[in-house]
Amino acid sequence: MCKKNFQKVLVGIMMLMLVLAACQSKSAEETKNNAPKEEVQAMEPITVSAAASLKETMNIIGEQYGSPVEFNMGGSGTLRTQIESGAPADVFISASKEHVAKLEDKGLVKESQDLLKNKLVIVGKKDLASIEDVLNGGKFAIGEPESVPAGKYAKEALTNLGLFDKMQDKIVLGSDVRNVLEWVKSGEVDYGVVYKTDALVAKDDVKIVYEFEDGTHKDIIYPMALLNDKPESKQFYEYIKGEEVKKVFEEYGYEVIDGANK
Asked: Which CATH architecture has domain 46-117+221-256?
């Protein structure tokens, strides 16, 4: 008799455990289904296309940001062409206002804002007594003016100084500003034109031998563009404008433009 009663109690306990497990599973599923869509979407990775000169800052920002971010770094003109061709991109940070403006003309931008300012410099391993000394040196690298903003600024500045046409036999063109920097670091060229922030990153390998004065070229403005209405895209776009990110940019030598909405 005792044995039968024990078996009944044991069966009852097992049935109760099954019922409780089923209830917990249902509750967990309901919680998942009822979770705010914004939270679920915020965990989806976004793609940020950014100018090559922003490599170090984007790496740090990506580590600080709370959700997955994939960065596509390159020349601003090349990135714009990729976006126009349908390549996946949620946010675009260009080293030139021109490329964001062209996307806006095609209706590919939801909103944009001027984000950063930079300076243009010549880097090398040997000092220049004057800017005219570049005419007596070896190879001189700039970015491809048609697709690399730093190259376009360089051509403009050198032209205004009366040097560009005299340097045609020396000039070699890089695919982006970091390509130019690497050529100078490796000694493949004597000098190159890069952003001041690039020179500061490579200060152990190259030095700034000349800084172009304001007025020799257009102001170097980095605009940021939001490319779609996805909540996670907007979230990152707003995050970039915050104080935490501002400190990162300033640490690397950029001037942050506060509230310069277009």
From this structure: 3-Layer(aba) Sandwich (3.40)
* Burial of 18 (C-beta count, 10 Å sphere; 0-12/13-18/19+): exposed
* Whether 113 contacts 224, CB under 8 Å: yes
d(CA 23, CA 18): 9
What is the model's pTM? 0.76
Statement: residue 33 has pLDDT above 60: no
AA letter at 119: K
* Binding-site annotation, residues for molybdate: 53, 76, 150, 177, 195
Q: At 145, which amino acid appears?
A: P
Instruction: Give binding residues as ranges.
Output: 53, 76, 150, 177, 195
Eight-state DSSP code of residue 175: S
Rounded CA separation 58/254 (Å): 13
Q: What pLDDT, on the 0 to 100 scale, is given for residue 32?
A: 37
Rounded to whole angstroms, how far apart are CA atoms 68 and 38?
A: 14
Contact call for residues 208 and 196 (beta carbons, < 8 A): yes
Distance in Å from the first CA to the final CA of the chain: 87
Question: Which pair of structure tokens corresponds to residue 75?
Answer: 């020349």
Q: Which CATH number fits domain 120-211: 3.30.56.10, 3.80.30.20, 3.40.33.10, 3.40.190.10?
A: 3.40.190.10
